[in-house]
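FIELD: query
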Amino acid sequence: MKLVVYVSLYAASASFLVVAGCSPQGSPPRQVDRGPAGPIDLDPPSALSDADSPWSDRPVEPATPAVTSSSPVQPSSPVQPSPPSPSDQAVDPASAFVLPPDLPDDEVSPDDEVSPGDEVSPGDEDSPGDEAGSPTAFRPAASPAVGPGSTPAAGPEPSASEPSVPGVAFNNSLRPEPSAADSSTSGGTRPGGDLRDTPRTDTVSVADVAGAEADMGGPIDYAAWPRPDVTLVFSGQQHGYIEPCGCTGLDRQKGGVARRFTLLESLRAMGWTTLPIDTGNLIRRYGSQGHIKFHRSVEALKKMDYVAVGFGPDDVRLSVNDLIQEAAQESSEKSLYVSANVVLLDPSLMPTYKIVRENDWGVGMTSILDPDFLEDEPAPEIQILPTVESARASLEKINAESPDFRVLTYFGKEEAAQEIIRQVPGFDLLVVSGGYGEPTYQPKAIEGSETKMIVTGDKGMYVGLVALYDDAPMRYARVALTDEFTDAPEMRRLMTAYQNQLRDLGLDGLGLTPKAHPSGREFVGSETCGECHTTAYEIWEASDHFLATEHIVHPPEERGDIARHFDPECISCHVTGWNPQKYFPFESGYLSLESSAHLTGNGCENCHGPGARHAAAEMGDIDVTEDEQRMLRTEMQLPLESAREKCMECHDLDNSPDFHEEGAFEDIYWPEVAHEGVD
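FIELD: result
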């Protein structure tokens, strides 16, 4: 039959508000004296237990899909933190997965910088060629036609006052344009609530569906859809963002595997059969922490029952051993990874395509990594084959098994992906990752092809739902992973294990060797600065910069179960004496709570530079000439016109998008910490 696509949306846009920093957890933890600087709390939060999970007896357990596949063709006093609580899931660093023996000390890529375009775009526009209010046609090759007037299965109409997705509260009103209200709830159970207490709506009336589909310019509640035969769930371009950091408030950030898990479980609890597929690029950094995050990310995908995963350009920067550890299985059918043109050592180790059969649907899928999209050469043992030839060979094998629907995921530029579709006709859906910004509301038309294209967006902030029906039009929706989806306890436990692994390895185990500061100076700590600069110190002490380390030792209550002061990606902007964008310590910079209590907080020297020699000269501890003393004083000055750029090393687009709004620095952020003159 010919399937006609209607496009709908539930997108909860994040409303970014200005905050000065995170707030520490409300419950009073144990405190340790920091002398004049005040106390810092050190009791580490405990981990979640299995009993916390609301999914312990979820009503629907999805059956394991049938899969066929093919192999390729070609403070001032020392701080004593308390020992880990019994609930901490201590991880043996050597048991989880083996790190490559030849990792260099410098594990940080010189190109690891904040990606451009990370800001939430001010709005989304419909794709060119997709007229609002008109259905978009997918034309699977082997499917007879079903018109827009086809009647879905009869069933109860959804109540306007009840959410129809268990565990997720929706605003069911249809609006012509997205707004902050999209992310609000209108009663009902929030994500992660008791699924058994929420009524399920499997089908809706034709009138309701038609009325919803008539307004294509705004969000439509996908929970109002008839229950699909199969739902393809697309994610991609996680790019290392395994969870929102929370620095600017979790209600202002999207994404994370814990929210994605909640979305998937809520769909399955409604009786939806889901086939999750990821386009790849789970990480963005290489080195020890990148390796660990990759394996933990794959672990998360397995827990979410993903059926296929492709490769992104940063994935193939990893060692071939790491990739084979996850991609090669005892049988091709059990392989999570599938790629038409990436070969790891031997073509027989990983399939080039998969056919997943579920509910009388056969879905064929393969993936392509564009070699022109690589910034670095992959390891010699990794081959990237020509894209067009590889896509054609995989599609021929897919078609030989007569699937009902064919998917190509592509990591690279949209234009290059579309050209492959024109040269290799026959795919029903193209899913592209690699660009920045948000996914469009509707699939895009591809000139010269009947294939439709959707994009995943960046940093795993969105999920795309493609619902397939045997007797009704296919539907598409993008779903923003906002705080409307609570963190699934299963993923919180995984994050606890990840953080505990970083703790157990330590900075040495992660290959992080302190490096000399570019100035050649050493750090002395903010208290020493305050002996002369008393007013500036008092202002700092009253700011959230002073509490920066406390915020990761005891995160705000939404994330208070997991301490993050062993995570270099968090440490770098929450202590004194680190490179904030490369995630490594400088010599004489912070190393631990025990050895570096004088360097807790985001201190004076992070902006003004290391001040040990300046302080020693001013106190008469060393002999310097008048010229050198003037030079040392000048070096410590930071002109206001340069301060904004310095601040952005931590207040980047990822962690502080509000900072980048016009006038935000001058009107909001600088007044919070303004200090001028010597004292």
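FIELD: remark
The chain has 17 helices and 20 strands.
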